[in-house]
Amino acid sequence: MDVLIHLFVGLHIIGIAALLGGFLTQMKAMGQGTARFVPGMLHGALTMLVTGVALVGFNQADHHHVNTIKIGVKLALLIVILGLVYVKRDEEKIDKSLFGVVGALTMTNIFIAVLWT
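Structure (tokenized):
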């Protein structure tokens, strides 16, 4: 079971890398007011959702302690991110503040994962 958990942690990290990488590649465009949500951001958020849910299940099945409050906060942030990216995915230009909110929520989700013990 540990190998499966580690595999899904790796996939979860790939998902966050796609989401954050998509945001970071659009930073220059954000300054010019032409930023948009790239497909990799949507795919990264979906990957995070699927692998995160699987990780909770695998950890509970393996009788590891799961901090449900932490997972709930991370899930709520991810649902907001996913909703914003999904709804605005076809627009050519995204408002700077909305694009910044997605980046801030993404980084908040990363810091919660790393710092909340």
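The helical segments are 2-25, 27-32, 39-61, 68-87, 96-115. The first helix runs from residue 2 to 25.
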